[in-house]
């Protein structure tokens, strides 16, 4: 019976399917075409709209020094002409005709594109997405325009002191393979990008067996599956890319970064290596909660830093990644308070590692806050779609689906474990950004970079 069912599905261009499941109170179905394309269909919302997303396992972490920044440039070229709508005018006209709202985003470990449109135009939207992903032409004139657009973004970003400061800290942490963390890219590489390089990226990464098609909104599973087969079965399977990279070396000792910028307040940034998703997932949930605990207004660190006026704002953040995750404490403050704030931060970490300091009540508060933030982040159909695509890229859909359940399993000893394994007595990047006057007054012994 199972062999007959599998054969029937393969004749339809579908290898497997999961039906009737629920993800975060939304009914969903998954199928996989025989070209390797994973399709995730989710019913969500009562409005007659649909979001169609293509998620690709690409981004900064696949870059080399020779193509650093081209993942982002490719994202810009995605919204250009293709074999059916060849000119930019035709492409833009079709966008207007279908009532499409669109965008794309390139991060270190994912590239995602989405179209949101009225459900009455759903099939036409599926066709439009298929041509965009399968049949780009990378027109030379449009490529020249987008090179300039991306270079202008580059110049804009590097005119912002906060961005310069962030990049300095990232480069210090990931010095050997920084190009795998540099999504904005290398200016000279972008300026000299060619059509051939675009096709090289397409043929290596923009293949169905390295992509997911996520469809969320006012949909019928049977009709959606029919449209998927009709428009995406012709997408040719490629050689699966390798995602085995040399590991980013861990810091052997603490590094200090100091920069003078035209800023009105000082910024202190302390960055550690964190748990990589896919290696010790249980640590990722505990780290999320530790960061939330450190931000709770009921906690001593909040009272000491904010209520006592030592900082204007602060946060402890963990950005989940599989290729070099980081945990960052960031505080905006007056220069004279820098050492006090640093001491309070490390003292609080040590306090949490002391038995009896962190209570179950505080941990429960943090879990409730993280859960609330999680639902707020996926409140709209677009945000939900992008969340599914992001987690499919850097882990698997299962991580997203089971996140809250695994979060609830974390106990106090788990929090203390990640503290010891990733933060306490571990080397870190200490970054300070301040104005010229404060640099002379409070940081005379610091080497300016």
Number of domains: 2
Amino-to-carboxy terminus distance: 68 Å
CATH topology (fold) name of the largest domain? Cytochrome Bc1 Complex, Chain A, domain 1
Q: How much strand content do the residues show?
A: 15-25%
Put simply, the count of helices is 18
User: Which overall shape is indicated by the principal axes computed on the Cα atoms?
Assistant: globular
Topology pattern, helix = H, strand = E: HEEEEHHEEHHHHHEHEEHHEEHHHHHHEH
Specify the helix fraction band.
Answer: 40-55%
InterPro entries: Metalloenz_LuxS/M16, Pept_M16_N, Peptidase_M16, Peptidase_M16_C
Domain Peptidase M16 C-terminal: 193-369
Keywords: Hydrolase, Metalloprotease, Protease, Zinc
Protein name: Insulinase family protein
What does this structure look like?
This is Insulinase family protein. The protein is α+β, with helices and mostly antiparallel strands and 449 residues long. The chain folds into two domains: 2-232, Metalloenzyme, LuxS/M16 peptidase-like (Cytochrome Bc1 Complex, Chain A, domain 1), CATH 3.30.830; 255-442, Metalloenzyme, LuxS/M16 peptidase-like (Cytochrome Bc1 Complex, Chain A, domain 1), CATH 3.30.830.10. Helices cover 45% and strands 20% of the residues. It is built from 18 helices and twelve strands. The chain has helices spanning 2-11, 70-78, 88-98, 122-134, 140-157, 161-173, 187-191, 195-205, 221-232, 281-293, 300-307, 338-352, 360-377, 381-394, 397-401, 403-408, 412-423, 436-442; strands spanning 14-23, 26-33, 38-43, 49-56, 101-106, 111-118, 211-217, 255-260, 266-273, 311-319, 326-333, 429-434. A seven-stranded mixed β-sheet has the order 1-2-3-7-4-6-5, with helices on both faces. The protein has a five-stranded mixed β-sheet with strand order 8-12-9-11-10, sandwiched between helices. Helix 11 (300-307) packs antiparallel against helix 12 (338-352). The protein is globular.
């Amino acid at each position: 019976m199972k062999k007959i069912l599998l054969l029937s599905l393969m004749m339809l261009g579908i290898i497997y399917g999961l039906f009737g499941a629920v993800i975060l109170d939304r009914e969903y179905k998954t199928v996989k075409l025989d070209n390797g394309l994973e399709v995730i269909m989710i019913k969500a919302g009562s409005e007659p709209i649909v979001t169609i997303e293509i998620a690709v396992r690409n981004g900064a972490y696949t870059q080399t020094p020779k193509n650093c920044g081209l993942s982002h440039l490719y994202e810009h070229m995605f919204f250009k002409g293709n074999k059916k709508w060849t000119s930019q005018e035709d492409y833009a006209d079709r966008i207007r005709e279908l009532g499409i709202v669109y965008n794309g985003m390139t991060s270190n470990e994912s590239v995602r594109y989405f179209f949101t449109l009225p459900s009455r135009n759903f099939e036409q939207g599926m066709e439009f997405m298929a041509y965009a992903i399968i049949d780009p032409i990378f027109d030379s004139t449009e490529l020249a325009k987008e090179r300039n657009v991306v270079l202008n973004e580059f110049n804009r970003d590097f005119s912002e002191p906060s961005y310069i400061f962030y990049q300095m800290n990232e480069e210090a942490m990931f010095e050997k393979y920084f190009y795998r963390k540099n999504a904005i890219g290398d200016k000279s590489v972008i300026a000299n990008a060619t059509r051939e390089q675009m096709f090289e990226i397409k043929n290596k990464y923009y293949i169905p067996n390295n992509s997911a098609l996520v469809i969320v909104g006012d949909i019928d599973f049977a009709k959606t599956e029919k449209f998927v087969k009709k428009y995406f079965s012709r997408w040719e399977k490629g050689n699966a890319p390798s995602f085995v990279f040399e590991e980013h070396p861990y810091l052997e000792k603490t590094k200090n970064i100091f920069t003078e910028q035209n800023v009105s307040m000082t910024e202190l940034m302390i960055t550690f290596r964190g748990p990589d998703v896919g290696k010790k997932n249980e640590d990722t949930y505990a780290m999320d909660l530790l960061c939330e605990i450190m931000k709770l207004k009921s906690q001593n660190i909040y009272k000491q830093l904010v209520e006592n006026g030592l900082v204007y704002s602060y946060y402890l953040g963990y950005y989940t990644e599989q290729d070099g995750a980081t945990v960052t404490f960031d505080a905006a403050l007056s220069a004279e308070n820098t050492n006090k704030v640093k001491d309070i931060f490390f003292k609080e970490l040590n306090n949490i590692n002391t038995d009896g300091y962190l209570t179950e009540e505080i941990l429960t508060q943090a879990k409730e806050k993280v859960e609330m933030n999680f639902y707020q982040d996926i409140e709209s159909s677009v945000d939900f779609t992008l969340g599914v695509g992001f987690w499919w890229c850097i882990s698997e859909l299962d991580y997203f689906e089971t996140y809250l359940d695994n979060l609830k399993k974390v106990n106090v000893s788990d929090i203390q474990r990640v503290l010891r394994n990733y933060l306490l007595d571990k080397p870190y990047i200490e970054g300070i950004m301040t104005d010229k006057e404060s640099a002379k007054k409070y940081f005379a012994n610091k080497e300016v970079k």
